Amino acid sequence: MIRSTDHILTSHAGSLPRTPELIAANAAREAGDDAAGYAELLADAVTGLVRRQVDLGIDVPGDGEFGKAMSSPIDYGAWWSYSFQRLGGLELRDGASWILKDVQSGPGDVRVTGFGRRRDRARFEEAYADPTSGVFHGGAPKPFPTAVAPLSYTGGDAVAQDVANLRTALDATGAQEGFVTSIAPGSAARMDNDFYGTDEEFVWALADALREEYVAIIDAGLVLQIDDPSLAENWDQITPEPALEDYLRFSEIRVEALNHALRGLPEDRIRYHLCWGSWHGPHTTDLPMADIVRTMLKVNAGAYSFEAANVRHEHEWRVWEDATLPEGRLILPGVVGHATNVVEHPELVADRIERFARLVGRENVVASTDCGLGGRIHHQIAWAKLETLVAGAELATKRLWA
Fold it and tell me: Which residues form a coiled coil (predicted)?
């Protein structure tokens, strides 16, 4: 991965707003109308997206997760629901939903109960239930996957399309580097399991299957981003609140499985994204970054992306006063957020960047977003946030290289 050797580099966490044409095509495909010309439409959309990022000043662009279908402008789950179509051994069941999920997991009797039973939601039940509150309260249940047979990776054609589209776009725009996202085994494991005898066996089976996607992205000469909000986010889905020691043991099983899936792959081409879930809510029961940062650093990746701009986690830049970033690794702190329509001022963005640069070294910081912007805020606001990200990085560069 390229480093901030002479200026603060910029990137983002993955998802970007889809074009109206792509959303309409995805909706038609979801309804069973697999219209001709979709592949060309998708390829052109990715090239246009990368060109827009490069023209804006984003140093490390991505494909916006355009190959992970969204059929509506608002969609919080495409980053992981795409995997339902790329894994064999699953059965989609009508009426099932991750909101109703209840899975026995890990040591210490840790039980993940799903979004609908979050402790944050229980604390703010009235706000979550009120559609006018501005708090995300879930969508209508959709067919949900259950493992019913040995898991396998069936997404070879889809990931080949993803990497080909991004490679073409990078070549067309002259961008030096680009990334594609892929789900971590631990986050994928929040689906139901009627086949594997234990949760740990299920997670490791997912690791073996998803490795094929990881290898395909790396082999295409791209940067692989592992999306794994569950490492921090599962905490809020466990009722009652577990002992931290039990939760960390539960989480480290998932880290071990991920490292198994990444074995032999170059760490300097892998970045890892951690967050507390991108839904718009109070987040009062989020796990502190200080409790999870050392577990995150056990992931065999060359860079770590995490939320650092929203009002629940911005103060946690101080974690890096005590946590040691391993030699040669990077951080991609979020310095603009997905959880508010307010567009950050470039001066604030620069201040956020400088805090991290002074703790871990300016060359080890790439300015990024908290989470994906696509599907969470209006496209016009999303692009304004990327503009202020670039402007803030330019200000920070002037100060840090003065």
Answer: none
Cα separation of 194 and 203, whole Å? 13
CB neighbour class for 158 (10 Å; exposed up to 12, middle 13-18, buried from 19): middle
Query: How many domains, the chain?
Result: 1
The predicted-structure confidence for 289-348, as pLDDT tens digits, reads as follows: 999 999 999 999 999 999 999 999 999 999 999 999 999 999 999 999 999 999 999 999
pLDDT per position as a tens digit, 318-334: 999 999 999 999 999 99
Residue 4 lies in a domain: no
Q: Phi first, then psi: give them for residue 365, nearest 5 degrees.
A: -120, 130
Asked if residues 145 and 190 have their Cβ atoms less than 8 Å apart, the reply is no
Backbone angles phi, psi at 184, to 5 degrees: -80, 155
pTM: 0.94
Which segments of 148-198 does DSSP mark as H helices, in order?
156-173, 185-188
